[in-house]
């Protein structure tokens, strides 16, 4: 299979400004360097994405995948990003069939930065089949959360961004494969989708995969995770009603409120292997004293 050519465009992730603190003092602080990236497909303007710009080519590739505009990664010949003009030029091998019809309906989602998807949110959900038998253990879940906690991030230095990560549990531990931050969680998951597509024939594609996000599990996030073939999703936040319904229907294990050793498994708990010895429940007297 021929993979597309991707440029390696780089842009600063943060910018330094001056702000006044609570003491009236002027101090220098870092803030995320949000920028616009207009995507052109075969010279046709498609969308403008607001992004940090860490991995713009993978973001565009994953966006096309998760919007269901391109079926195979080999259908893309190249993605060229030029930050001087804020544009990404996508060249396909055979064009995108019925692109006008496919992009005619736009749904504004709850994604940060006002995310959107083309077509109906529930299109093709019924056809998704996630791998059976894949799971995460409680110790792997705790390891995943701790890895995120220790990660040096743009959020720690500048705030105002969301993070997503892809983990593999094939080794018995929760091993991080990719970590992405962006101004919106939908951008971060699209970037991971692009990376997965570029590596779908590598050993990573056979690994038991778990997706992590700092954002809430909305229907958009659950659907994108399912489209990527990931059966377990972990969030630092919670889940929406529609996200819960979609996760139930596609067989996806959705775990939320995952901080330290606390979590809630909202759907398909059979994919979570509990290990009761890892935590102790506080007794009633201690709970009252607290």
Automatic annotation (TrEMBL):
SUPFAM superfamilies: Cytidine deaminase-like (SSF53927). Pfam families: FdhD-NarQ (PF02634). PANTHER family: FORMATE DEHYDROGENASE, SULFUR CARRIER PROTEIN FDHD. It comes from the Bacteria. Gene3D superfamilies: 3.10.20.10, Cytidine Deaminase, domain 2. Required for formate dehydrogenase (FDH) activity. Acts as a sulfur carrier protein that transfers sulfur from IscS to the molybdenum cofactor prior to its insertion into FDH. Belongs to the FdhD family. GO terms for biological process: Mo-molybdopterin cofactor biosynthetic process. One of its GO terms (cellular component) is cytoplasm. HAMAP family: FdhD. This is Sulfur carrier protein FdhD. It is found in: Cytoplasm. Keywords: Cytoplasm, Molybdenum cofactor biosynthesis. GO terms for molecular function: sulfur carrier activity; sulfurtransferase activity. The active site is at 112 (cysteine persulfide intermediate).
């Amino acid at each position: 299979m021929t993979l597309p050519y991707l440029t390696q465009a780089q842009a600063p992730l943060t910018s330094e400004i001056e702000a006044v603190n609570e003491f009236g003092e002027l101090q220098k602080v870092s803030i995320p360097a949000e920028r616009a990236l207009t995507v052109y497909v075969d010279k046709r303007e498609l969308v403008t994405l607001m992004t940090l710009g860490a991995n713009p080519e993978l973001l565009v590739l994953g966006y096309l995948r998760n919007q269901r505009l391109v079926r195979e990664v080999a259908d893309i010949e190249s993605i060229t990003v030029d930050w001087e003009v804020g544009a990404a030029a996508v060249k396909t091998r055979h064009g995108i069939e019925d692109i006008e019809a496919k992009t005619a309906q736009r749904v504004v989602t709850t994604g940060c930065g006002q995310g959107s998807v083309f077509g109906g949110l529930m299109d093709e959900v019924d056809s998704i089949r996630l791998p059976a038998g894949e799971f995460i253990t409680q110790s792997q879940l705790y390891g995943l959360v701790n890895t995120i906690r220790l990660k040096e991030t743009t959020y720690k230095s500048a705030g105002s961004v969301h993070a997503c990560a892809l983990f593999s549990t094939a080794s018995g531990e929760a091993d991080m494969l990719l970590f992405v931050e962006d101004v919106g969680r939908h951008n971060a998951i699209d970037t991971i989708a692009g990376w997965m597509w570029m590596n779908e024939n590598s050993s990573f594609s056979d690994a038991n995969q778990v997706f992590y996000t700092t954002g809430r599990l909305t229907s958009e996030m659950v659907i994108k995770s399912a489209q990527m073939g990931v059966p377990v999703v972990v969030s630092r936040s919670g889940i929406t009603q529609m996200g819960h319904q979609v996760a139930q229907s596609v067989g996806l294990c959705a775990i939320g409120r995952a901080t330290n050793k606390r979590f809630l498994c909202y759907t398909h708990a059979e994919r979570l292997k509990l290990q009761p010895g890892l935590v102790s429940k506080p007794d009633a007297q201690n709970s009252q004293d607290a």
